[in-house]
Amino acid sequence: MKKRILVVTLGSLGLSGVGFAQIPDLLNTLDAGSRSMGAGGAFGVTSADTFSILANPAGLGYISTRTTNLAFRNMPRSQTQLFGDIANPTFTTTGKGGKNNLSEFGYAVPMAKGGTFGFSYQVGGYIDDFRSGQNVTIGGFNNATYQEQIRAKTDFYTLAIGHSNSAGDKSTGWGLAIANLNLYDKQLGFLPGNPQTTLIDSTNQSSTWGVGLVFGFQSVPSSQPNTTIGGSIRTPIKLSSNSFSSPLYDVLPGQATFGIATRKDNFRGKNDFIVYGAQGSYYFGGKGSGFFDRKGQFVFGVGAEYNLVRDEFTVPIRVGFSNNGSGGSAFGDRNSFTYGIGYKPNGQPWGIDLNYGSPSGGGRDFAVLFSYRFDK
């Protein structure tokens, strides 16, 4: 049997307590499992694949055959231990590895009159934090137990077009991005005993959406034919209103990204080659609350990809580092060493990539990417 006590302010206390947990900040910056993921995210705006549809539509201009990608990755989670009063607790947070899910599907097709069209589904942001505390204070009640599960997931559905010039040294692109945000929060607070006294018992979830635009360019400098410079900008996205999500998270931040990658051929005197890259992104214009605090956020990555080329196959080997800065007081930095490996049989239309990350705060990142070209 459970005994319930009405505590008027507990719901707001539980929600405000979220602001004190330093969740690893992937609310807007999750890499869905691209080739770039194993290289610290260094090739996002300089690549030419279906991830370009959202990251930088200009990359579509360099896709000359029908191409599709399918990516699966683990959805990171975290666990927070609370101490003291949940209205203003102390805490410790540890990263964990989550379940594997579909994270990207993309398809690109060249158009008869020039340019390439693409559409994609991509997970662009994700957090999953479970917080708990024993012998904590809830609304003046001591020795209470508190548990809360909070999840947020942002899915992007994007349509885009990219077009390169006749010389092949410049490309531009633009796209329409539809963002769908799912929020979930479940709180339970009680005094142990027989009967158990329930202090908080609430579940809230909602789905909201909005529309934004993304523009990008890629350029190959005439003096550096093995170097690609890329940049893109995605507008902030105003989300539709509803009673639960609007007070918590009203505007998804925009994203401005710039990157550079350079290729060195005949590496070590063979057919092997290596690609170096660096990329930085700034997230701006977001509007949230103490629950999902959104401020300016900077993400930076560097990495390299060594391609071992043989007559029958090519094996890309990647390594990198990503610095994922906090985007609000409710969140913490998430830095990660990354690495990956792929296999592409020469003369065949398919390839596979595995990418990994070791975040400094605990947990793991893992993604598998399948790519296929329909036209030879």
Task: Provide a short characterization of the protein structure.
The protein is mainly β and 376 residues long. The chain is built from 2 helices and 22 strands. It is elongated, with a radius of gyration of 23 Å.
Count up the domains. 1
CATH architecture: Beta Barrel
Uncertain runs with pLDDT below 50, 5 residues or more?
Answer: 4-20
The average pLDDT value, as a whole number, equals: 90
What is the strand arrangement across the widest sheet? 3-6-7-8-9-10-11-14-15-17-18-20-21-22
What percentage of amino acids are in beta strands? over 45%
CATH superfamily grouping: Outer membrane protein transport protein (OMPP1/FadL/TodX)
Please give the largest β-sheet. Answer: 14 strands, antiparallel, barrel
Would you write up a description of this structure?
The chain contains two helices and 22 strands. By secondary structure, the protein is mostly beta strands. It has a single domain (2-373), classed as Outer membrane protein transport protein (OMPP1/FadL/TodX) (Porin, Beta Barrel). The strands form three sheets. A 14-stranded antiparallel beta barrel has the order 3-6-7-8-9-10-11-14-15-17-18-20-21-22. The protein has a three-stranded antiparallel beta sheet with strand order 12-13-16, with no helix packed on it. A two-stranded parallel sheet has the order 2-19. A hairpin with a 2-residue loop joins strand 7 (116-138) and strand 8 (141-164). The longest helix has 8 residues, at 10-17. The termini are far apart.
